[in-house]
């Protein structure tokens, strides 16, 4: 078994690509990529970061930060996270986009584009550490 | 103290006060990126070591829930660890005009890198991501 990150990377090659949300408990965030093309990140706010393709600038994914906090707040206000259903990304996008702040003008187009990803669901089992 | 098996050592990273400390990454989360992609993100984990050992800037406060004390290390990589031995051809050089960021939280064993990404380089402060003044609470170290 690899003893360092450098060894691990030498011994393990990437295994493929799966367009599905992934939750990372150590940083309490999830990512969702629709494609595996190279991209860079653009932070929209304290909840959402978008990933934009380097070649075309199109939206290829997003990161939701503070998952535990958003779910806690949603549960506290009875916004449908207590059932057994999987959780839509739209819940997180709503939490981020709802405040109407004047300084958001230039980035509002990205919130509109995130609507395309709103129906993607996160497997509740993945979020066990956050719920 | 024994290192938990799920923590993979990265090396001795720089701290804002100039000292160093052991940095780690969660092996289980690295496994997930390896298995599910994107492949570029998995491959670019090779730049994490330079980011935490020889950064251009360190920021504190990620302006997100429960991450007020976390750090962000920013670097324009100067070397590609895969250049000399890259049998799989994945060693694409860093993209011009972008900086590599590694996000770090303080865990029980030391500092843990929990995410990494590229952002657009600042036009007036090389090695910093654009909008760093808005995206982070404060800059706590920069390369002299």
Largest interface between protein chains, with number of residues from each side: A-B, 43 and 49 residues
Biggest β-sheet of chain A, characterized? 5 strands, antiparallel
Arithmetic mean of pLDDT of chain B: 90
Q: Biggest β-sheet of chain B, characterized?
A: 7 strands, mixed
Shape of chain B: globular
Instruction: Tell the overall outline of chain A.
Output: globular
Straight-line N-to-C gap of chain B: 35 Å
Number of domains of chain A: 1
Please give the alpha-carbon distance between the first and last residues of chain A.
32 Å
Residue fraction in strands of chain A? 15-25%
The strand count of chain A comes to 7
Looking across the biggest beta sheet of chain B, what order are the strands in?
1-2-6-5-4-3-7
Q: Uncertain segments of chain B of ≥5 residues (pLDDT<50)? A: 86-93
Computed structural class of chain A: alpha+beta
The helix count of chain B comes to: 4
Strand/helix succession of chain A: HEEEEEHEHHE
Succession of helices and strands of chain B:
EEHHHEEEEHE
Q: What is the topology, as strand order, of the major beta sheet of chain A?
A: 1-2-5-4-3
Structural write-up:
The complex is a heterodimer of chains A (131) and B (144). Chain A is an alpha+beta fold. Chain A has one domain. In chain A, 25% of the residues lie in helices and 23% in strands. Chain A has helices at 5-11, 67-76, 89-97, 108-114, and strands spanning 22-24, 29-33, 39-43, 48-53, 59-65, 87-88, 121-122. In chain A, β1 (22-24) and β2 (29-33) form a beta hairpin. The two termini of chain A are 32 Å apart. Chain B has helices at 27-36, 39-43, 48-53, 132-135; strands spanning 7-14, 20-26, 57-60, 71-75, 98-106, 111-120, 138-142. Chain B has a seven-stranded mixed β-sheet. At the A-B interface, α1, β3 and α2 of A face β1, α1, α2, β5 and β6 of B.
